[in-house]
């Protein structure tokens, strides 16, 4: 008997990937683009647009299709606004899309509320970048709790590192529900980093875009946006930058997050300071270019903490703790908090002491090998 072409094949699984902010967009991109091309899945993408312009930059860079857009961002939104709008918005998306699997990434309120919505509809959740823990519910706030809630809901935990897996095991998650995949941030990084390295025209474009940077000085790249740093932390970071800038041998470039709690403070403290360039949030490729050109990175960002070690750039983490201890253990990242003196002392040491710098600037890749997306889809295709 002649076999029909579909015989022996499982029906396509309906996969709904939900994301809302810049880092989720960047980290979902490699999984989403591979899933869209994978025969085991019927893939749709829902953006909550918790971020609007910063997310649209990612959509335009990656060319990902958007099947549902909740368009929830409002200026100065609160955690209540985001939670409520995502949860309610997901109700009708889930009714319409009828997914077999809802996939979320990381620890944002979008990811938490979308997972909760899937739980209310009894749809299994796959969690990318599962298991990171600071073990302090107040920091990162509210991300530590968001990630734990998603962890309690998820059926599949895609842990980026062995340490993340151990955190999940310690919480009693079944071993066979956890897969160590590496972090998809590295899949994204390798994809676009290759583009920058191999395209002379693009490199020339980037150099022209940043022609205001004095290349004879050491480039210090800064980002900051954590909510637990709103209560004076951002201000102290700015005070440290002001002193650092006065050295004269550094060029400080600070793409300022559009959150008004960040933007207003940074502008008030650092506008018109020589050697400090306050610029808009950069698209991913220019930001990657800046990371590659930097001497030192100062940040409280999760994603940048993961990218810098892979690029061999020392990173000072301006937080009291981190749920990404692998970079610190590898020696490329150092926790400096937001104390002005500690930031200054550590940065000055790296700027002045060549061997201290070299010790930190070893290229390490604790976060993955660029194949995380492949492993995630392979696992789900047999689920
Ligand atoms: C959010 C996430 C945080 C993540 C960060 C990445 C939560 C609670 N917070 O923090 O985990 O690390 O994104 O950047 O999920 N805004 C714009 N345009 C944009 C994006 C934001 O103008 O494209 C402004 C708006 O005024 C908005 C505000 O920033 O209301 C805050 O955005 P929100 O997503 O609530 O918080 P983030 O600080 O960006
Ligand atoms: N990033 C970017 N443009 C910028 C600053 C950061 O594209 O101006 C990228 C960065 O390379 C990383 C991600 O955004 O991949 C990190 O996002 P963010 O710091 O907003 O969030 P977090 O990672 O802390 O959740």
UniProtKB/TrEMBL annotation:
<protein>
    <recommendedName>
        <fullName>UDP-N-acetylglucosamine 2-epimerase (non-hydrolyzing)</fullName>
        <ecNumber>5.1.3.14</ecNumber>
    </recommendedName>
</protein>
<dbReference type="InterPro" id="IPR029767">
    <property type="entry name" value="WecB-like"/>
</dbReference>
<dbReference type="InterPro" id="IPR003331">
    <property type="entry name" value="UDP_GlcNAc_Epimerase_2_dom"/>
</dbReference>
<comment type="similarity">
    <text>Belongs to the UDP-N-acetylglucosamine 2-epimerase family.</text>
</comment>
<dbReference type="GO" id="GO:0008761">
    <property type="term" value="F:UDP-N-acetylglucosamine 2-epimerase activity"/>
</dbReference>
<feature type="domain" description="UDP-N-acetylglucosamine 2-epimerase">
    <location>
        <begin position="37"/>
        <end position="380"/>
    </location>
</feature>
<keyword id="KW-0413">Isomerase</keyword>
<dbReference type="Pfam" id="PF02350">
    <property type="entry name" value="Epimerase_2"/>
</dbReference>
């Amino acid at each position: 008997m002649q076999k029909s072409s579909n015989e022996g094949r499982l029906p396509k699984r309906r996969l709904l990937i939900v994301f809302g902010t810049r880092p989720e967009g960047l980290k979902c991109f490699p999984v989403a683009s591979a899933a869209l091309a994978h025969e085991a899945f019927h893939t749709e993408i829902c953006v909550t647009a918790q971020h609007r312009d910063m997310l649209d930059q990612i959509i335009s860079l990656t060319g990902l299709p958007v099947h549902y857009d909740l368009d929830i961002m409002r200026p100065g939104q609160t955690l209540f606004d985001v939670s409520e709008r995502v949860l309610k918005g997901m109700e009708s998306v889930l009714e319409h899309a009828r997914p077999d699997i809802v996939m979320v990434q990381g620890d944002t309120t979008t990811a938490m509320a979308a997972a909760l919505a899937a739980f209310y509809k009894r749809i299994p959740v796959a969690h990318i970048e599962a298991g990171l823990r600071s073990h302090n519910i107040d920091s990162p706030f509210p991300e530590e709790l968001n990630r734990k809630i998603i962890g309690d809901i998820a059926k599949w935990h895609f842990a980026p590192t062995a340490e993340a897996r151990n955190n999940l095991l310690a919480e009693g998650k079944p071993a066979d529900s956890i897969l160590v995949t590496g972090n998809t941030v590295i899949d994204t990084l390798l994809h676009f980093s290759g583009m920058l390295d191999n395209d002379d025209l693009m490199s020339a474009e980037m150099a022209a875009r940043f022609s205001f940077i004095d290349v004879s000085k050491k480039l210090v790249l800064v980002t900051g946006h954590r909510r637990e740093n709103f209560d004076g932390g951002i201000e102290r970071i700015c005070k440290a930058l002001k002193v650092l800038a006065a050295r004269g041998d550094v060029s400080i470039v600070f793409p300022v997050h559009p959150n008004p709690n960040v933007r207003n403070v940074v502008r008030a403290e650092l506008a018109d300071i020589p050697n400090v360039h306050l610029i808009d949030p950069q698209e991913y490729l220019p930001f990657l270019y800046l990371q590659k050109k930097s001497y030192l990175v100062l940040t409280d960002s999760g994603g940048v903490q993961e990218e810098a070690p892979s690029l061999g750039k020392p990173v000072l983490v301006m937080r009291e703790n981190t749920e990404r201890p692998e970079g610190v253990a590898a020696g490329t990242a150092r926790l400096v908090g937001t104390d002005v003196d500690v930031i200054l002392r550590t940065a000055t040491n790296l700027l002045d002491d060549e061997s201290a710098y070299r010790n930190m600037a070893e290229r390490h890749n604790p976060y993955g090998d660029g194949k995380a997306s492949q492993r995630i889809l392979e696992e789900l295709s047999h689920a």
